[in-house]
Write a structure and sequence with these properties.
33% of the residues lie in helices and 26% in strands. It has 286 residues and is α+β, with helices and mostly antiparallel strands. It contains 11 helices and 15 strands. The chain folds into 3 domains: 47 residues, Uridine Diphospho-n-acetylenolpyruvylglucosamine Reductase, domain 2; 112 residues, 2-Layer Sandwich (Uridine Diphospho-n-acetylenolpyruvylglucosamine Reductase, domain 3); 102 residues, Enolase-like, domain 1 (2-Layer Sandwich), CATH 3.30.390. A 5-stranded antiparallel beta sheet has the order 4-5-10-6-7.
Amino acid sequence: MTPFELVEPRTLREAAGLLAAGEPSVRAMAGGTALMLMMKMGVLQPTRLVSLRAVEKRYSEVSGGDGELRIGAMTTLAALERSPEVRNRAPVIARALRTLANVRVRNVATAGGHLAHADPHLDLPPVLIALGASVTTVRPEGGRTIPLEKLYAGYLETTLASDELIAEVTVPAQGERRAAYLKCTTRSADDWPALGIAVALDADRALVRDARIVLSAATDTPMRLGAAEDALRGARVDEGLLRRAADAAASEAAVIADGHGSAAYKRELVRVYVARAVRAALASEG
């Protein structure tokens, strides 16, 4: 790696200010699990890293109120996995984290860094999009709230400004919604997936009132499957309905080929895993 300067601001706003010049050689670093790998490979050669490790402790906490869940951007994935608030309010997040990378990565990687990295193979973006999550950001002056599904612009690209940092993730109250996340890995369970499917349903055992289905890994960005959602919405669940939803998902998914499989293979995975994920969501307790 090339030499670089490391700075450790005490507040997120101060950190954003250090990024305000928009210089591509200055980068923010949260857990650093992805950034350091890219630096070792020579993909990134920053002259300055703005470490977020010393920012206010409140950005490393998980809290809840009125049923919603608030996740500080510097919360590690391991802390998120163990959080009683997460397990009570959105247990699908804790379940998804069990096979996200490995425990060494989860002990260091952070929620905000995970989302901002924008690799389509990551597990939490589709889950949080299915749950209707949003992110709150900080800039040198002000900030904003962005629905998470609007955060991603392309492969490793977000809609964040160069001086904008994720401060908090908010997951709305789920009520009686049921959710599931399934992924297909071609090697070990914690490997990069060939496909991930997250489903959140407002449903009882027989009738789907509303549905959110999100595809990841097989596409450049997490993708809502609107046609499959429409097929489920207002319908009674049977095998015929699941086939129609799965066929709709396979038809609309803009899948891409990569080292984990061809486009044709991934399209068939979409067909299979959408039906499986809907069944898993209906069988879950949250």
